[in-house]
Amino acid sequence: MTKPTDIKLHQTSRVLELHFDDGYTCNLSCEYLRINSPSAEVRGHGPGQEVLQVGKESVGITQIEPTGNYAVKLHFDDGHNSGIYRWDYLYELGKNYEEYWQSYLDQLEAAGKSRKDTN
C-alpha cells in the first residue's frame, strides 16, 4: 500500500499537500476533502444514501489526527470529524480529482445548489 511520506496543511489557501512514497504528490482542497468524507454522514450506509454536501466552499481543517499507521482523521471547522481517510483513499482522491470534482459540480447543478449555499 502506498503511504504518505509528508502531509502539510496550508491554512491560508485551505489545501492539504500530500507526498506519497511512490513519488506521487497532490494538493487537495479542504472543500474537496470535506465533500468526499468517507463518513456515513456523507456517504450514507449504502448505495444511493449519499448526502450531497453544500456550502462547503470556505471550510477549513483545524486538526489532522493520525489513526494507526493507515489513516488520518480530519477535523473540519464546520464541526465534521467522523471520517477516517485511509492512505489509499487519499491517494484515490488525488488521482481522480478532476473526475470526482466535476461529478460534484454536476450534482450541485442538478440539485439547484451551489458551493456557497448553506440551505
What does this structure look like?
This protein has one domain: NE0471 N-terminal domain-like, CATH 3.30.2020. The chain has 4 helices and 6 strands. It has helices spanning 30-35, 40-43, 87-95, 97-110; strands spanning 4-10, 15-20, 25-29, 61-67, 71-76, 84-86. It has a 3-stranded antiparallel β-sheet. It has a 3-stranded antiparallel β-sheet with strand order 4-5-6. A hairpin with a 4-residue loop joins strand 1 (4-10) and strand 2. The protein is globular and about 40 Å long. The chain starts with a strand and ends in a 9-residue tail after the last helix.
List the helices and strands and how they pair.
Layout: E1 4-10, E2 15-20, E3 25-29, H1 30-35, H2 40-43, E4 61-67, E5 71-76, E6 84-86, H3 87-95, H4 97-110
Antiparallel strand pairs: 1-2, 2-3, 4-5, 5-6
Characteristic key phrases:
119 residues, alpha+beta, NE0471 N-terminal domain-like, three-stranded antiparallel β-sheet, 4 helices, globular
Counted up, domains total: 1
Shape: globular
Helices and strands, in order, run as: EEEHHEEEHH
Mean pLDDT value: 94
Strand order of the largest sheet: 1-2-3
What is the CATH topology classification name? NE0471 N-terminal domain-like
Secondary-structure content class: alpha+beta
Number of strands: 6
Radius of gyration, in Å, reads 14 Å
User: N- to C-terminal separation?
Assistant: 39 Å
Give the CATH class. Answer: Alpha Beta
CATH architecture: 2-Layer Sandwich
Uncertain runs with pLDDT below 50, 5 residues or more? none
Summarize the biggest pleated sheet. Answer: 3 strands, antiparallel
